């Protein structure tokens, strides 16, 4: 069995390849500079040539604020690019796992979001990711859409590494928003979940295709997350602030907490405790913890 990983240079794509290697699963990984999923003909050619057992699409335009100024590029990758991958998979009858985001929701629900809740994306990034989901559903029935949130890992740029970098640079005060709540999700855990799904797909007569949520637990605010990330750092004053005061270019959902009971029932996949993965990442990176 061989799995094609698109967006293999990113946080989750890199974790997928390492996790697959540890499990003895063969992968072919393509970075953005090796395959731009906005190029539909190139995507079709690659998947037709490789005929993998499954495709995991981790490729995405993830610069949330910059997307407000580059809507065409964000749409080309997150929406049409996702559609290109799904069409190519449909032509070759290859199962597809497509990664999506908590941003498809508007964040106004007080409780955890379930898969069947109405979407309400706000901002360019959010709208393009939600359209990507729709294009995947329209193009190919044998898909698993995995919505996740607040991704962090050892490779790439993320909140955890940014906090460590700023602390290492000698910052004495940091302000972090306290009115956004969600589930930090380790890239390694997402990789494991994707490979568990691939294993279920391989040779199964019945697969519960559809949309699933997968996020870390327990749910926290960004401020509370930062407190754990920076625990043990002396001489650093961490201050809570509001989303409005922070003034980010693009809107963010206030509540990003995802209900993950469906993936547990269908695949036996449990929510990861992000604190365990954070400590492992802290030990693995040691002093070289910045971006």
Question: Care to describe what's here?
Answer:
- The protein is of the alpha/beta class.
- It is 41% helix and 16% strand.
- It has 10 helices and 12 strands.
- It has helices at 11-23, 40-50, 71-92, 124-139, 159-168, 187-201, 222-229, 243-246, 261-267, 274-285; strands spanning 2-6, 26-30, 54-57, 96-101, 143-148, 151-152, 173-177, 181-182, 185-186, 210-213, 220-221, 237-241.
- The strands form 4 sheets. A 6-stranded parallel beta sheet has the order 2-1-3-4-5-10, sandwiched between helices. Strands 6-9 form a two-stranded parallel ribbon.
- α3 (71-92) runs parallel beside α4 (124-139).
- It is globular, with a radius of gyration of 19 Å.
- It starts with a strand and ends in a 6-residue tail after the last helix.
- The model has no long low-confidence stretch (mean pLDDT 95).
The beta-strand count equals 12
Q: What would the principal axes of the Cα set say about the shape?
A: globular
What is the strand content?
15-25%
Q: Count of DSSP helices? A: 10
Q: Which residues sit in consecutive blocks of at least 5 with pLDDT less than 50?
A: none
Tell me the structural class: alpha/beta
Q: Alpha-carbon distance between the termini?
A: 34 Å
* Rg on CA atoms, Å: 19 Å
Strand adjacency order, main sheet: 2-1-3-4-5-10
Q: Please outline the major beta sheet.
A: 6 strands, parallel
- Which percent bin holds the helix content? 40-55%
Q: Mean pLDDT, as a whole number?
A: 95
SSE ordering: EHEHEHEHEEHEEEHEEHEHHH
């Amino acid at each position: 069995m061989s799995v094609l990983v698109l967006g293999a240079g990113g946080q989750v794509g890199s974790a997928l390849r390492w996790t697959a290697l540890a499990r003895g699963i063969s992968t072919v990984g393509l970075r953005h500079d090796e395959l731009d999923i906005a190029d539909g003909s190139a995507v079709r050619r690659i998947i037709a040539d490789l005929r993998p057992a499954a495709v995991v699409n981790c490729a995405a335009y993830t610069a949330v604020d910059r997307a407000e100024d580059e809507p065409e590029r964000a749409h080309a990758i997150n929406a049409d690019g996702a559609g290109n991958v799904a069409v190519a998979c449909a032509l070759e009858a290859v199962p597809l796992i497509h990664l999506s985001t908590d941003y498809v929701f508007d964040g106004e629900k007080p409780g955890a979001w379930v898969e069947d809740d109405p979407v309400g994306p706000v901002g360019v990034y959010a709208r393009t990711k939600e359209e990507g989901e729709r294009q995947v559903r329209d193009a190919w029935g044998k898909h698993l859409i995995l919505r996740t949130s607040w991704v962090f890992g050892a490779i790439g740029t993320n909140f955890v590494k940014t906090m460590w970098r700023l602390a290492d640079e000698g910052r004495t005060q940091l302000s972090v928003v306290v009115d956004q709540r969600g589930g930090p999700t380790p890239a390694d855990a997402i990789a494991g979940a994707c490979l568990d799904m691939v294993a279920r797909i391989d040779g199964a007569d019945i697969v519960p295709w559809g949309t699933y949520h997968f996020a870390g637990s327990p749910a926290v605010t960004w401020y509370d997350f930062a407190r754990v990330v920076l625990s043990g750092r002396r001489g650093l004053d961490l201050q809570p602030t509001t989303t409005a005061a922070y003034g980010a270019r693009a809107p963010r959902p206030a509540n990003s907490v995802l209900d993950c009971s469906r993936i547990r029932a269908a695949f036996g996949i449990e929510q990861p405790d992000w604190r365990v993965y954070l400590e492992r990442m802290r030990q693995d990176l040691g002093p070289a913890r910045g971006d």
